[in-house]
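Field reference: "sequence" (input) and "structure" (output). Example, Retropepsin-like aspartic endopeptidase domain-containing protein:
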Amino acid sequence: MLLLSTPALAQDKTIIGPTAEMSVVETKFTYVARIDTGVVENSLHAVDFNVANGVDDMDANIGKMLSFTTENEKGVSHRVQAMIVEISLIRNAQGSENRYMVEPTVGEPDQEYKVKVNLRDRSKMSYKLLIGRNWLQGHYLVDVER
C-alpha cells in the first residue's frame, strides 16, 4: 500500500537538482543556490548588519528592522531591510553560533514562498544561498543526478 501511495505524492512535487537558480524577491536578483537536504534551514549571504534601535542581546532585537547587504555569486549586491523574526542557534563543525532570521520570498519563478532564512557571511563560500529542508519540504524532490 505504501508503494502505491508514494508515487502519487511525488507527482505533486517538482524535481530539483543539487543546484538551482533562485530568486530572493526582496534582493531584486537571483542566486545559484545549493540545495542541501542535510540542513533544516536556508542560509543567505549577508554582511554589514544594522538593527534599528538594536541592543547587544540578539533575542531582544526580534521584531525590529534589520538592514544588511547581500551579494550573489556574480558580485551584484543590494541593501535589504527585513524584520527579524527569530534567532537561530546553528551548530556545525566549526562550533555553534546564533544568527538572525528573516522571512523573505524565495524560489524559482512561479514557485516562490515566504520562508525563514538565517543570515551569515558566506563570502568565502561558492554558494551565497543555501536551500534547506524547510523550503524544500512539501514542494520538491531532490535528484542529485540532475
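Residues 2-11 form the longest helix (10 residues).
The CA atoms of residues 57 and 87 lie 11 Å apart.
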